[in-house]
Predict the 3D structure of the following.
Amino acid sequence: MEIRKARKEDVIHIIAMLADDELGSKRENFIDPLPRVYYDSFEKIDQDPNQHLVVAEENGEVIGTAQLSFIPYLTYQGGVRSQIEAVRIKSSMRGKGIGEKLFKWMIEKAQSSGAHLIQLTTDKQRSDALRFYEKLGFKATHEGLKLHF
């Protein structure tokens, strides 16, 4: 398995994975062809040096994805934190250690880039994901709040 930077041709596979569950199917618009907004968003992410949209690929097939963001800020003496978003493993490939390898890659990337912490959020309905993150060493130390528009 290889973890590499996502390319434009990966977008359709990424959106397919994001839409392939109960929560994602309500948020994403996975149709062929994909709506232009997905490609516009990909271009913004791809051009931002603080964003790392990656895919896990095996035998030429995209089987996982995640986005690692770097957020500079003034606290922690001008520190940088990393944020993990949009983690998905292709449903037929789950339970094979791909997610763990993807997370190890992101943690190493964050550390080598000088981030002082790495954080993520998960929907409370994703109890399996929460257990997985805790197994990797993540701790629920804060309450997260969102305001949707």
